[in-house]
Write a structure and sequence with these properties.
Strand order of the largest sheet: 1-4-5-7-6
Structural class: alpha+beta
Number of helices: 9
Length: about 200
Amino acid sequence: MTHNQPNPSGTIGPNAITRIAQALRHQHSETLTQQVFESAGLTEALLEPPTEMVDETWVSALHQALHQHLSPDQAREVSLEAGRLTGDYLLAHRIPKPVQRLLKWLPAGPASRILLTAIQRNAWTFTGSGSLEVRHRPQLQLTLIHTPIPRRLQGERPVCHYYAASFERLFQVLVHPDTRVTEVQCTATGAPACVFQVSWR
């Protein structure tokens, strides 16, 4: 099992904010989008989307507001789309094209290990003061500890759809098209950490 070093500054990449706004506007009205961001205290971030790292408390507040204004299923769909959009952004701007070609050429097992090494090296950009642990056997499992999305949420179902969709998008494009990433434990439901199982045929 391997894990990344937490980011002591507690900051997160701006995609965690800007892609939620993009997905909200796509699925709902501008008025509702403004209400969600206003409830989170992030009206300025909606008017002038951040381009630098943001405080992780912004992400916690935004997901809390998302669940206050939308039903659980609606919040899930917004988070899933935002996660996929983040994956697309990383593929377009952060993962070098030669590396992408190599990963697509390799068998799924080696490709996943290389991809996860890169994800762990940059995990501080989405875990903030939390951390990511990777376990390859007996089944590929990603564990997020003390990350911002579920921090202010409580419920009966997992809520970290943004993370699951981001991971799934990267794996589907670079490792295996049939990859599925499923959150099987979530701190929002009382679990000690958020656990994601990754599988493909």
